[in-house]
Amino acid sequence: MTRLSKALARTTALAAGLCLAVAAQAQTPAPKGASDGVVKIGILNDQSGVYADFGGRGSVEAAKMAVEDFGGKVLDVPVQIVDADHQNKPDIASNVARQWYDTDRVDAIMELTTSSVALAVQGLSKEKRKITIVDGAATSDLTGKQCTPYGFHWAYDTHALAVGTGGSLVETGGDTWFFLTADYAFGSALQADVTQYVTQKGGKVVGAVRHPLSAQDFSSFLLQAQGSGAKIIGLANAGLDTSNAIKQAAEFGIVQGGQRLAALLFTLSEVHGLGLKAAQGIVLTEGYYWDLDDQARAFAKRFMAKTGKMPNMIQAGTYSSVTHYLKAVKAAGTDDTDAVAAKMRELKVDDFFGRGGTVQANGRMVHDMYLFQVKTPAESKAPWDYYKLLATIPGDKAFLSAKASGCPLTQ
């Protein structure tokens, strides 16, 4: 045998051995029980910035409530919640996540307000083989072109907001749009999804302007929107940015002049902060409202007792996602990531938030969304009585199918 043929033979044998090892590993069942005597869940979100009321400490409290209601244990080991403020910065979020995974042995990270943060942490979690469940971030890319085997998206997304708020306004005559868009991944995704829906319905986008996150002065942006003559000014932002834009729009008399504001991502927390006088008449889309029914009211009453506030869809969604994760760990009989991810897709979501929801192959949790209009001060009969229900949007209409999402895992 020549030297070359011997080398080839050794290479072939090595490759064959490697394939056998990989195959054997793939066939090895996941170890039973918790790997290190505790199941740790990290809540990573904005706790001090523009989205602090959007999710913030309220989401941390909702996660703790979910663990408490689950009995505080799974697989006979305690469940622990840890939390951190990512300050809306992907680099800070990634550093926290890496520390949690490598040193603190966190099993899953949830909430993840801010799309740029969520995309960064979901990418790192794919590398580390860890589960993420996003409640606070919106971009549909999380379960679209940037989906991963371990990434899940829970409370809402930009497609659902486009179908709900965007669709309702176009269908009632709002056929020309100008966007004020937050200049990062979320704003771009929301503007793109709403634009697609508006144009499909025969509407037209006449212009757009981008503003930095946590902008203080919207005057120049609003003047451009006012000058465009668009019937609808779409606020493709969230949190305090949306609230500040609405306040300043009132100073310019934009609504009195005949244009309408579309708060494309607006929750109960921001309505409360803005007040009914300023927020009245705004149409918005959420996945939860505290006064929908007895189930929703029961959770809200307990949340109010702990926080002094009513929950929005981000906080309610965090409770739901923590609960579903723990159910999946219990059903799998292990905290092994692949086994738990498979169970998360297999199990139905049946709680006050999900209401018969299903988890698609791309990680998108499909559930009904709701179109609301903010009441006038005269219509509101009690504290936090802010919404009137206009329509229920079925989950299969609100969210893209796994096949249509663009997720490489489902093509």
From TrEMBL:
The keyword RNA-binding does not apply. Keywords: Amino-acid transport, Signal, Transport. Residues 1-26 form the signal peptide. It holds the Pfam family Peripla_BP_6. SUPFAM superfamilies: Periplasmic binding protein-like I (SSF53822). Transmembrane segments: none annotated. Residues 39-375 form the Leucine-binding protein domain. It comes from the Bacteria. InterPro entries: BCAA_transport, Leu-bd, Peripla_BP_I. PANTHER family: LEUCINE-SPECIFIC-BINDING PROTEIN (PTHR30483), PERIPLASMIC BINDING PROTEIN OF ABC TRANSPORTER FOR NATURAL AMINO ACIDS (PTHR30483:SF6). Belongs to the leucine-binding protein family. This is ABC transporter permease. It comes from Methylobacterium terrae.
